[in-house]
Amino acid sequence: RQVSTQSTWGKNLGGTTWDVMSTILEFEADRFVLTVTRNTYGVNELKQDERKKLFPSFGRLSDIHDDLAALQDDDLLREKLRAFPEYLDMMEGERLGHDGESGMSSLETKFMAKSVELHKDSLSQQFHFGIFYSWLKLKELEVNNLMWLSECIVQNMKHRIGEYVQIY
Length: 168
Hints:
Blueprint: H1 2-13, H2 15-39, H3 48-53, H4 65-70, H5 74-80, H6 85-96, H7 107-122, H8 130-154
């Protein structure tokens, strides 16, 4: 619901703020839809219409929300995402267990990396309010990275210390 509220606010402001924020918020909405879809496979208590109610009402995937709400495995999800190569590539890379450029394998990590890219791009624009949102989100990720590093040290998992999402 937070993403929907931010979308409404951005639309009302219009201009550069909406140009910048629409791309970011659509991606966040799609990310949420895919995460909910994957995390609710096999949850019998959650019916298709209830699952769809969890989805934001906008985003690039909004046209296939009905189909996504009915899915129960990654193969069917990949089939539905064929029209969205950006998301399909992220899922294919996860299935292969590697990403040739950075070594990331988690879909959530790929979502975070794409989010960083979008937020960094928004910082290149001038005279809009989206810069505050992006700055805050990048700071949030920076804190998450510090938590990851400290948890790796505490749990003596130093070999995994490099698995954080790079910001700059």
